[in-house]
Amino acid sequence: MLTDIEIAQQAEMKHIREIAAKLDISEDDLELYGKYKAKLSNQLIASVQGNKDGKLILVTAINPTPAGEGKTTVTVGLGEAMGRLGKKSVIALREPSLGPCFGIKGGAAGGGYAQVVPMEDLNLHFTGDFHAITSANNLLAAMMDNHIHQGNDLGIDVNRIVLKRCLDMNDRALRSIVVGLGKKADGVPRQDGFVITVASEIMAILCLASDFNDLKDRLGRIIVAYNYDNEPVTASDLKAVGAMAALLKDAMKPNLIQTLEHTPAIVHGGPFANIAHGCNSVMATKTALKLADYVITEAGFGADLGAEKFFDIKCRMNGLKPDAVVLVATVKALKYNGGVPKAELGEENLDALKKGIVNLEKHIENLQQYGVPVVVTLNRFITDTEAELDFVREFCEARNCDFALANVWEKGGEGGIELANALLNTLETKKSAFKVLYEDELTIKEKIACVATKIYGADEVTYSPEAERAIKKIEEMGFGSFPVCMAKNQYSLSDDPTKLGRPENFGINIREVYVSAGAGFVVAITGTIMTMPGLPKVPAAERIDVSDDGIIKGLF
Q1: Which of 31, 119, 266, 349 makes an SS bond possible with 8, Cβ 3.0 to 4.6 Å?
Q2: 103, 533 in Cβ contact below 8 A?
Q3: Which of 505, 507, 427 is nearest to 463 (CA)?
Q4: Coil, helix or strand at residue 116
């Protein structure tokens, strides 16, 4: 059996101008990065604004398990299937971070015969967007430290600096560091730290900005520190905005590539959903809606994280109204939630399936709170039995969800036809009545409680003293109307990753709260979640190599 990377490397890609032509994009509107990658020009983005919007479909999933769910694979396969049905479609994805590529996951371009290509390029550097974001963030940090070193006219309190440097790599040793050691010329000593690039505020800003002017406005509002009078100091105060914008000029343009079946794929931005807002860029999504009749996008991790943030942050800020949601699960993952060890997931076990399906049930209920029709799909494995599949189908249909099987890993678009037809039926027969979960006027605590109780199923929310003080300060500064971005582990609906299924009788503890004034949301960190991940005991990097003829191996 071929690996994902072997399948991708054997694919016959079309020149990117042929892919663009499917969306009525001329070569003059592409900024080429070789034969198979391109950025969409500013002129193109401006020229399509008068077009009618297509249908917006979100793909999300149950909480991830070691059994795997295949959300990106289903997203890609669904896009390929829509193409086979003659629908003018485009998929809109996030760019992979180097952190998980070399950490646990390996590559992040889909799988099997439902992948976006060139797979190696996408996973490794791509068009340099993440490097630009990293550079812009670290330029701001350098300008801040230089300002302090050169006399500190803004009165920055070195004990109240909130901006951290960033790196697009899992590196736990950089979570808490000391900078400025050495001679006087080496800077002012202070405690510092790194976050992974995909958790940085600039990543969020790039993904939420509606245009370049909005990008610059948001960059200027970034709070880097507080002064001795307890007043915020911003990137604008440091006169850093112009230089940061120059670094991000090309990174703001969405990227166009293709699937194995030559479906157009717009890939741009990549915040994590467990520690950031988990959605691709607004620029990419809105442009895609002007170019195609159907736009299939995804949000990171389970629906309790990515989908909630897609709805309550991305859609709220930009007036997006999704038409349907595809919720991905697997029989194996549901049995894992029912207590079956990973080694035994291939055996039929209806009792465990009935016990674990409550995780799927909760996600269905959560999505239906937003007024958006739901289609449930099972990413099928050869070990799934008819009795198991029938049980899940009946369970979903009893909850007013269309249901379909997907076999896109093995068969590509052909294996997604059933899902594509179910989605089209839902779009034709069920009208979306999208609404956000909470209103802007609620307090920060009320918004946090709304997500914790209505989405996670918690009984209560508790706060550390530091979080209490931070919320009070944030509301005093006038940011109380912002939505909340919850940083929570992805493996459980609770803040305890060991609690599978549908946990009950639990509380959510808010450890830390801070405002991302440029991004436009308040971050609430729960439990022990880290904004700089670490590598596992056996990193995926150990399996990656390059052959003598320059072929990359082991990248998933």
Answers
A1: 119
A2: yes
A3: 507
A4: strand
Residue 329 CA to residue 335 CA, distance in Å, equals 11
Asked if residue 351 lies in contact with residue 44, where contact means CB atoms within 8 angstroms, the answer is no
The pLDDT tens digits of the residues spanning 64-92 come to 998 888 999 999 999 999 999 999 999 99
Phi–psi pair at 91, nearest 5 degrees: -100, 145
Summarize the confidence of residues 467-491 as an average pLDDT: 97
Sole residue written with tokens 């917006």: 56
What residues have CB less than 8 Å from 542, skipping those under 6 apart?
A: none
Q: Tell me, letter by letter, the H, E, C secondary structure of 171-216.
A: CHHHCCEEECCCCHHHCCCEEECEEEHHHCHHHHHHHHCCCHHHHH
pLDDT per residue as tens digits for the range 350-402: 999 999 999 999 999 999 999 999 999 999 999 999 999 999 999 999 999 99
- What is the number of other CB atoms lying within 10 angstroms of the CB of residue 329? 27
Does residue 22 contact residue 45 with C-beta atoms inside 8 Å? no
- Active site amino acids: 71, 73, 94, 105, 273, 301, 381, 409
- Residues pairing with 523 in the sheet: 485, 514
Summarize the chain as % helix, strand, coil (round to 5): 40, 20, 40
Longest CA–CA span in the chain (Å) reads 73
**289-337 tens-digit pLDDT:** 999 999 999 999 999 999 999 999 999 999 999 999 999 999 999 999 9
Its pTM stands at 0.95
